[in-house]
Structures are given as C-alpha cells and as structure tokens.
C-alpha cells in the first residue's frame, strides 16, 4: 500500500501514533551498535498542558520498558488502541524492544505480558542503576544508564528470537504479506508452529500482527488522504468497504471517515 507523500517532512513519531496533543514533545535516541539487534530505540515524551489531553497510539508488536516518576515498568503488547491521559507537566523515558527480543532479558513467555503493565523485577535488573535512571534529569544520562542496565541483563543464545524478529520486520516492510498462509510460505514454519512461537515470543497471534501492520498503514493513508476509504479497503484485501470500516473502528476506536476529518481539522 503506497501511502507516503515525499513532499511531506517526516513526523516526530511513526504511523503508530493516532493523535499527539499540543504541548507534547517527543524524541528518539538510537541504540549503540551492540544493543541494536535487541533495541529499536530509546524514546521520551514530555508534556506541559493547561488542560487534560489524550494521546492515542496503535502499538507495534513490541515490549517497552517505561520509566516515569518513581516507577519502572514493563509494558506488554496492547492489542487495542493504547490511550494515555496527559495532564499538567510530566516526562516519560522508555526503551522499545524489537519484536521478540525482550526474550533476551526475560525467558518467560511473552503472552503473560499481553495487555498488561507489570513492575520491573529489581531482583533481576540492577536496582542501583534503575534508581539512578529514574532520578537522572537529562535524557543522555538516562540513556547511558539504560544501556548499562541492558548489558547486565541481556542474554543471547535463544534460537528462535532472532528468526521471529526478522520475520515480523519482514512482514512490516512487505504489505503484500496479508494472510497466515502467506506467512507460512515466507517463514517455512507450519501454521501450528507459528501460532506457538508468536504466542511465546510476541504474546499475540500471527493474524493479529498482520492485521495490526495493515491497519496502521491504513490509518496513515486515510490521515494523509493519499487514498479513498474504498481504495484502502481494497488494497487491504477486504471484499467491501463496510467490513473494513467495522474492523478499523473496532481497533482504532474511530471510523475511517473520522480519521480523515480529524486530520483535516488538525492545526
């Protein structure tokens, strides 16, 4: 699905972001070379708003570590739209793992984290480094401490994590892969093996991953108005526009037409 407009500047965040309120600043910091196979990026969000506002994200199949105030938490994959209320002033620092790669820090099945936020286990993670990270005032210092903490915990040697990571990223980059049958042909695994590995390493099903990537791309197309609702539905393989609209709204919380109207009315 071709949605990009080369005349538009890149956005601060990717197509996963459905809405970013005024008064919110975001940033990303790339990982060093030794951590890049595991970490997609470090990220931060800062806000100062006079009234409560809502940020909405359609999550990728990735686990995050999130550090805010005095809390350090693991955030699993959120299957519906992730909504966060922002009020007053605040800062969040996070680590986005590449798909399946949180397994290098935690051997437990990823499905235990799906739709959940759990405290970081300080019996496993270096308590002193985590406390320093929470109190560090500047993003470069937070990033340096996060890198140190990751190097202490990360373990290699899992034979499935890297192939699953590469498969998911291949799906993300190739929109012609639309069905589980396509995924079976691409991966060489049986459907039953795919279901088991995705549950254990990602916490979601192959069908969920396929659907999420395509709905993210659809949301971007609609927001940029680079395609009509009917054309986007057809490119995603829906037999009719109404079926696509129902699916889209069940996940995003807004209809395709509402996404277009919100984009037109954005400042």
Describe this entry's structure for a reader.
With 267 residues, this protein is an alpha+beta fold. 39% of the residues lie in helices and 21% in strands. The protein has two domains: 17-153, Jelly Rolls; 161-265, Arc Repressor Mutant, subunit A, CATH 1.10.10. The longest helix has 19 residues, at 206-224. The chain is globular.
Secondary-structure blueprint:
Elements: E1 17-19, E2 24-29, E3 39-57, E4 64-68, E5 71-75, E6 82-97, E7 117-119, H1 127-135, H2 139-153, H3 161-173, H4 180-187, H5 191-201, H6 206-224, H7 229-235, H8 241-252, H9 256-265
Helix pairs in contact: 1-2, 6-9
Ends: how far apart?
A: 27 Å
Output the number of helix runs: 9
**Strand count:** 7
CATH level 3 topology of the largest domain: Jelly Rolls
TL;DR of this structure?
It comes from Gluconacetobacter sacchari. By secondary structure, the protein is an alpha+beta fold. The protein has helices spanning 127-135, 139-153, 161-173, 180-187, 191-201, 206-224, 229-235, 241-252, 256-265; strands spanning 17-19, 24-29, 39-57, 64-68, 71-75, 82-97, 117-119.
Q: Which features would summarize this protein structure in a list?
A:
alpha+beta, seven-stranded antiparallel sheet, 21% strand, 7 strands, 2 domains, Arc Repressor Mutant, subunit A, Jelly Rolls, 267 residues, 39% helix
């Amino acid at each position: 699905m071709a949605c990009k407009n080369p005349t538009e500047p890149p956005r601060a965040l990717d197509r996963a972001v459905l809405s970013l309120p005024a008064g919110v600043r975001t940033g990303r910091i790339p990982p060093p070379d030794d951590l890049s196979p595991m970490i997609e990026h470090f990220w931060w969000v800062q806000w100062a708003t006079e009234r409560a506002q809502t940020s909405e994200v359609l999550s990728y199949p990735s686990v995050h570590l999130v550090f805010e105030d005095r809390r350090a938490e693991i955030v699993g994959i959120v299957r519906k739209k992730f909504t966060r209320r922002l009020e007053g002033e605040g800062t969040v620092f996070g680590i986005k793992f590449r798909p399946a790669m949180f397994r290098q820090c935690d051997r437990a099945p990823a499905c235990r984290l799906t739709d959940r936020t759990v405290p970081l286990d300080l019996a496993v993670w270096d308590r002193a480094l985590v406390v320093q990270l929470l109190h560090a005032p500047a993003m470069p210092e937070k990033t340096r401490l996060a890198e140190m903490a990751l190097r202490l915990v990360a373990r290699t040697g899992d034979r499935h994590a890297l192939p699953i990571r590469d498969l998911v990223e291949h799906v993300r980059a190739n929109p012609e892969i639309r069905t589980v049958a396509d995924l079976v042909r691409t991966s060489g695994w049986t459907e039953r093996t795919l279901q088991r590995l995705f549950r254990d390493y990602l916490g979601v099903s192959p069908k969920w991953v396929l659907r999420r990537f395509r709905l993210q791309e659809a949301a971007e197309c609609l927001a940029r108005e680079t395609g009509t609702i009917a054309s986007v539905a057809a490119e995603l393989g829906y037999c009719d526009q109404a079926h696509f609209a129902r699916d889209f709204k069940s996940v995003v919380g807004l209809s395709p037409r509402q996404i277009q109207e919100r984009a037109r009315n954005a400042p």
